[in-house]
Each structure stands twice: as C-alpha cells, then as structure tokens.
Amino acid sequence: MLPRLVPRQPLRLFRWQAACALGASVQRRTWASRIPRPLGPWGAVGNSPPVCRRSSSTPAGGPEVALTQERYPVKRLPFSAPSEADLAAFERIIPGRVVTDTEVLAASNVDWLRTVRGCSRVLLRPRTSEEVAHILRYCHERNLAVNPQGGNTGMVGGSVPVFDEIILSTALMNQVISFHSVSGTLVCQAGCILEELSQYVEARGFIMPLDLGAKGSCHIGGNVATNAGGLRFLRYGSLHGTVLGLEVVLADGTVLNCLSALRKDNTGYDLKQLFIGSEGTLGVITAVSIQCPPKPRAVNVAFLGCPGFAEVLQTFSTCKGLLGEILSAYEFMDAECMWLVRHHLHLTSPVQESPFYVLIETSGSRAEHDAEKLNDFLEQALRSGLVTDGTVATDQMKLKALWALRERISEALSWDGYVYKYDLSLPTDTLYDLVTDLRTRLGSQAKRVVGYGHLGDGNLHLNVTSEAFSRSLLDALEPYVYEWTARQRGSVSAEHGLGFKKKDALHYSKPPAALRLMQQLKALLDPKGILNPYKTLPAQA
Amino acid sequence: MLPRLVPRQPLRLFRWQAACALGASVQRRTWASRIPRPLGPWGAVGNSPPVCRRSSSTPAGGPEVALTQERYPVKRLPFSAPSEADLAAFERIIPGRVVTDTEVLAASNVDWLRTVRGCSRVLLRPRTSEEVAHILRYCHERNLAVNPQGGNTGMVGGSVPVFDEIILSTALMNQVISFHSVSGTLVCQAGCILEELSQYVEARGFIMPLDLGAKGSCHIGGNVATNAGGLRFLRYGSLHGTVLGLEVVLADGTVLNCLSALRKDNTGYDLKQLFIGSEGTLGVITAVSIQCPPKPRAVNVAFLGCPGFAEVLQTFSTCKGLLGEILSAYEFMDAECMWLVRHHLHLTSPVQESPFYVLIETSGSRAEHDAEKLNDFLEQALRSGLVTDGTVATDQMKLKALWALRERISEALSWDGYVYKYDLSLPTDTLYDLVTDLRTRLGSQAKRVVGYGHLGDGNLHLNVTSEAFSRSLLDALEPYVYEWTARQRGSVSAEHGLGFKKKDALHYSKPPAALRLMQQLKALLDPKGILNPYKTLPAQA
C-alpha cells in the first residue's frame, strides 16, 4: 500500500532543547540564580555617552562581538546616562534586583546570534507590573532609555541595547495568574517561558497556540511583543487572533490593563493590538491572556521527498484537500538544507535523496480517522508522482527526530560559515524562484544558497553562507533581495520583526503614509522615545 | 442507537434572506438603481445646525422614528453645515453620484432597528478609494462631518448620522479585486456584500471566515469596521486574525495602503488592527484582504434539548472533546426563545419541549468521519442524560431550517413588544445567571426576559420585552446589567460594538487609562473629529 513509507535507517534521536525559530541552540538563562554585586562607582552622570570597554562585555572563551555602535552607523540619542543616584533609586524600587554584575551584563548585552552588542551597565529585574510602572515612571522623568528584554532569542537585534540603555528583564515575572480548564484561557506574567507554559497547559489538556524552536528560552511577553509566528501558525493563526488581552506599562509608567480573558470584546478600540509586534517600542508587556486550543489526541508527522518545487506546491494543494482540518504544519527544505544537517550535525535522512523535502504534520481528535486521511493522501501523492519517498511517525521520539531535520537547519548553517539571513513572505507560487535566481546571480561568491521554511504560510527562510564576512557579497544581496521581495509585494520580515538590524528595510514593505503613521504612534505613546530606542522604525531625517 | 434523533414533525422551510446578527429581517438596499435628483436650494451655510423637518425623513407607511437629537441628550458639534457650494464640489468629484433624493435619505438616516434617526441631506456614492480620498480631503478642509455607511445593519446606531453628517456610502465600491485559488486570499472593495462574497468564494472551493444573519445586506467593510463576530467565530476566530490587509482613507484624505495579501508580515506596527472595530471613527475602510478557509465537504447540524443550563455547559465540554476540530458552532437558546419563534413566526420545533436547546454544527473534510464523531457524541450525550431529545440534519434545506430556529429569535422578539437588547461577554459558567437574576428582579415589570447566543464564545444575547417603552423598566435594567457584567469582568459589548447607543457604557469594560489612550488615538488620526462623530467614544468632559 505505502511502499517505502517506513524509516529506511534507524533515526538518530537527540536532545535539542531551546533552538530558535531558525534552529540554532540558545542556552537557558541562569539569571535567576545570580546575586547582584554591590554597586560600584562606574556611572557617568549627565548626557555624555559612556565609553564601553571591550573586555567587559566579552564572554570568556567566545569570540568578541563587535559593538553595535562601532559596526553600524548609529548615533546615540541624547538620553541621560544612568548615574549612581539612579541606581540607588532603582535599588529602592526593587531591592536586591538591580544587577551590575559584568558577566550577567555581558550575556545580556549580546544577542544570541552574536551579531550585535550594546554596553548597558545595569539590568533590572522587577517581579510585578507595579515595579515596572515605578521604574518606567522614574526613567521617563529622568530621560533614561530602556531596553525591555525577555528571553533574548530575537533574530534581528531587537532584544539587546545598542548603547547603554537600561535592560529591563522580565525574567522574574514568571507566574501563571490563572487558567480556565473549560475555555483554555491562560493568563500569565510576561516572563513565563514558552516551554514551561506548554507543559503547564498540556498537563491540563490544552496546548499553547504557538510553538517555536526557542521555546526553552523565549518569554511569552517577548513572543507577543515580536508577534512570533513559528510552527503552529498554519493551524492556529496569528497572535493577533489568539491573544485575548494584555497588560502593558506605557513609557510614562501608566499601567494599561487590557488583560481581558474574554473571547469577544468590542468595547472601543482594541488597544492590545497596538503592542503585538511593536517590539517593546510602544510599551512594556507585563502580562498576557491567551486562548489555548485543546491538546490534539493524535499527532502524525510525514517526511517526504519531492522531485521538484512544482511538486512541493502540488503536494500542498493535495494535502490541504485530503487532510483538511487536521493539517497542522506544512514545512519544506531543499536538498542543500538536508546536506547541511547531515554534514554538520550528523543527522540521518529517513528518505532517499531528493531535490526537496516536505514535513507534514496532522493533529486531530481521533487517531484512526487521522490515519485514514493521511494514508489516503500519501497513496495519492505517491501514485501521482508528487512524492518519491517518505516516512511517517506517530510516536513522540520519532516525531521529534523528523522535526529536527527541519528545525536544526539554522544551527547547521551556523557551522557552515558566515550566514546572511532573510525571512521573507512571498506568494507561494514564486517563493523558491528567489533562491534559484540568487544562485545564478551570486555564482561562486557564495558558498551556499539555501531555502526552507513555513511554505503553508508563504514564509521563506533564505540563507546564504560564505567562508567569512564579505562586504561585496552583502552588496550583491542587499538591496537586491529586498527589491525582489518588494516587486512581488512580499514582506521583508515575515515573522522575525525589524528590531535593530532590519529597521531600515521597512519601506520595502510599507508605503510612506504607513511609516508616517507609525512614527506618529511612537511619538504619541513614547514622546521622549525612551522605549527600546534605535529599533523597529528607521531614524527620522 | 439514536432514539428520536430524526425530525418528529416535518420541518417548515422558509426563505429568510438578510436577517441581522440577532435575526430580524433587513431589506436589501436598492440604492444602486436610484438616480439622484437635481440639487435643490436646501442647504444651510455656515455652522448653524440645520432644522430637520420630521416629515422629510419618515418613510411612507412606517411609524415615525424619533430624531436622535430629540430622544438623546446629544449636542451638535461645531462642524460646518454642507452648503450648495459643497454639493457642487462633490458633484465635480463624483459626477451623478451625489444623492439628495429625500426617500433615499430617509432610509439612510434611520438604523434598521428603527431606533435612531439623523437628518443628513446628502449621501455620496464613490466608486474608488481615490474618490473617497478626494471627498475626505475636501470635508477635512471644510470641517464637514462624515458618516461612513456600509449595509446599515448595525445594532448600536453606529451606521446612521446623529445630525446632518454627510453619509459616505460604500455601496458602489463592490468589486472583487483579486482571489487566489490556492491560498484562498480574497481582496475586494469595502462595499461588497457579504453574501455575494460568500457565493463568489464558495464557487471556488472556499468560504468566508465570517457569517452572520445580515449577510444579504451587510458590507465587508462594515463587518471589518465593526469587528463583526457571528456564527463562524468559534471555528475561524476574530477578524483581527483573518483580515490580512486593509486599505483605509484617513480623515485628511491620506490613503493608507496596507492591503497586504500575505499571511505573515512583521514589518513595523500592524496598522490595520487599529481600524478593525473602530466603527469608522479613525478612518474609512475602502478595501479588505481576507483569508478564506477551504469549504468543508461535510456539514452537520444537531438540534438538541437539554434539561438545564448545567447540562448545556456539560454538553459543550463533551462535544468539544468528541468533535474536536470539526466543531464549528455551539449555540444555545432557552425555552422562552423557542416559544417566541413558534408563537410569532410559526416555526416548528423538531424536538420535545425542553428548558434549553443547543444547536451544534460540525464542518469537516470527510463525511463518514464526521458522522462517526457526531454519532458517538450524541450517543454519549443521550446516554448520560445531558440531552433529552434531538434531531440531526445534513442536507442544505434542513440545515437552514434548524439554523432559523436560532437565528430568527431577534425577529420574533421584535413582534413581542418593545425590546431592550444587551450583547454581553461573560464567563461561560455564570453566563445564564444574569437571565434568571433579572427575571426575579424585574418580576411582572417585564413581559419576557430571554437568553440565547454564541455559548461557545461566551457571548450572551440578553433581551427583555415589554408592551411599550417604559422608562422605569429601563432604569431597572441600566446600569444594573452593566454593573453585573463589570463585576464578572465581562464585556458590555461582545460583538455589536458601541456605536451611538452604547458609547457611554464603555467604562464598564475598560479602565480610565484605556479610555484616555483611545481618545488620544482619535485625536491623532482625526484631529477635527469629522469621522463618524458622536460614536464609539463618550463625549469628552
């Protein structure tokens, strides 16, 4: 019936916690166990930008990450520099939780991709919204810039300071506030780690409506602030739909309590939407109310080889038709990606070598119905030549092994050399054309040009590697990739956001009138611009 | 196996097009065939509020609807009154589509519930966003107030003028712009009628992600502007999740083109969200891009009798577990509602008399799987006494007949006397307590107190009738109902919005900080306040 739809070789299994959306590993933070050192006389007073000593923010053993202010053409805005008196004031607000330990700060100043680095000298760890409000009220008055930080797993440099912004960590705001066992509504503080929330709701018969590789580190507040997409988007949709309410502290310390646990609420403007995806530039999310779907009783994953991209698209159409409401993920990767995970991570492919691979997940309430639907789909896909080989898994370990082939691509890429990363939304039909086009354009300049991603959502992760950073290769990529995307009316950031690194590409996906309105909203909500400065929006002329 | 789960009596079938969310009929507009009369010398010049002659806005044959400015304590704001010169200017922008016909205006000045009435003397019918932009630019400069109007099927007086606002109708903006047959993304003008869009996408294998009784009249732009909920919310979620993009004309005539057809786009703030549910007070939606789900291959409706509200809740839990991903609606109504539709509309109940009734809909991709799931659920529900009687329909005509029992309740109510309407979000467990509580509180003051609604979404439609309008009954209801709702942290408007009639109840569901921010957003986007004035937000002190 289903020739070759069993693993051809034993699948290697591995523990790979906490990989990011694009797959590379992120170490779980250990801030909670650190004790802040006594305050030292390091503070500069007034508006003079502090000078960062390189050594102070270089983690032992790691290669030094260039300071953002040195690598990028960015100028410090005239915020106050935190003084001794400021630290003393913070100490009064959150006694014992004002962190100036250089090691902790070194880790918090650098993004996990190790591409941008700030030189903040203080990290605050509030436990409650009231403490956040108190801190922001103080910073607003003193004109101190603030960098809200969740799990620091962002892809675009949005979660670390650019200069000496005060780091406001949500790490200690990690309490579940309530969970409703009939409706599946979870209300929790912003610093709850996604994976811990998943375990919490799964024990109660539900799942989180989002899942991403970084789940072991990322905070739900950061997920909402960046409008994280991830692996369940195809089935459960955007956070704009699943987030029911937010508590947000505004730049001036006002607490905006819109923490509704109701599915429907049409009383006035839906203010929470403003903060979903605003990357901490309009307010600091302190608590989240979110709708959790019931935990599916049956999950299947099929990993299939396709002879071409046209077949990847046709397979998607076919499985949408035959799997219907149980389809929960449709991911694709090209042969180069498979080479990367086999070569660098020693994973084993369960199927014959193919130009493309797709990973299909089903989630449903009745195993035998799901199996029947999946088998019918697989038979049709094989019979019609859309798929040349494949394997199906239903038990947890094998599911994870198959998922790893897709999810660890980014980790494998980081072993391949310097990586140029693009996260694009494109019309599905032409989504892969950019990859083949770039291979021709770049020729031997690039070591590898690979494409993979959430095909079901029209989301391509395009990655280019070279032995080392090359300015001429970057010039060949940008603005070419952005212009190509703009011509297709695509998005230059499908799910990663803009943060610090992509903010100047905004105009490729949004018209001038939209940019103007965004700047006006920023000015309205944060007139002094203290919240996560240098992020999301391009600097104003 | 399933005793009595067949219709006990032949179901009466009826054609009931265009009933509103709460069920009463709305006549399809015929503006498209009207020819505007030549301009007459009726206009007042300057800021003096025009005097409305009652006769001019009273439809022939209908009882007169009191002018809003006479029934409610509302003062005209100092907008200019449209002059002859203004009409001439509009005529230059949209030749032949400046309507001053008194009959057309009479219909457009009154809401379909016939509870509020404005006295606008001009209705504009642009065909393009550019025309809307031109009109708004002009009105902004001239300080003329504008009332955007879609199908005029709103429940809270948001779609008709309060005074002499210029009515800006989207009726002629009714073109589909594009439809993608693989992704199901529909892009269309704001004036497309929901039912016509449904037919359009159904012919292509998709459905609209929303459905409501008013579908025969309501415009998709109005649906988005009011964040319409309706019958498919349980399955496909909020428009905040399914709307992919919007084109909006701002108060000053700026065209904001965020008409993305992409499922994922994290480039900057998600501006479209601001306009979803803002009831035309922040901008005029001129085009919509929306994600349509695949058309289900199998649809079943079960109509069941339950012995008590506790059983209604348990039946919901049971069916969520056993129907899982195919559950697409869970509606309930009490015995009084059944009495109303039988008595006033002569519908026939297909099941034995019960204290409560539930309507369960499944939508799936495989008929035999869905039938098996549904049968298993029904067996369990009957065996455990949660359900005492029931019927199941699979063919279109019977489906509609069963749905009518639920959807025509509001129409039946309107035959019962004067109706006091509340649309509340409440925690599901205590949702019906308010109905029983009110029956005790009101005693013989009320003719009938009924409860029904979208239980799956925690949305109660509470309706109270009396022989005629009674001030003392109103005083017994308000603010009691709002305070009761606020104590439960519910919403005083789950899906109908605030419009003109509920705007002063906003503070029962939103804190002062949220109200302030809403006012600030209004001031930012519409500094002169010309867009749909007197709506959504309470008048500022």
TrEMBL record, chains A, B:
Q: Which GO terms describe its molecular function?
A: (R)-2-hydroxyglutarate dehydrogenase activity; FAD binding; metal ion binding
Q: Does the keyword Zinc apply?
A: yes
Domain FAD-binding PCMH-type spans what residues? 115-295
GO terms under biological process = malate metabolic process
Subcellular location field: Mitochondrion
Residue runs in coiled coils: none
Catalytic reaction equation(s): (R)-malate + A = oxaloacetate + AH2
- Protein role: Catalyzes the oxidation of D-2-hydroxyglutarate (D-2-HG) to alpha-ketoglutarate. Also catalyzes the oxidation of other D-2-hydroxyacids, such as D-malate (D-MAL) and D-lactate (D-LAC). Exhibits high activities towards D-2-HG and D-MAL but a very weak activity towards D-LAC.
Q: What is this protein called?
A: D-2-hydroxyglutarate dehydrogenase, mitochondrial
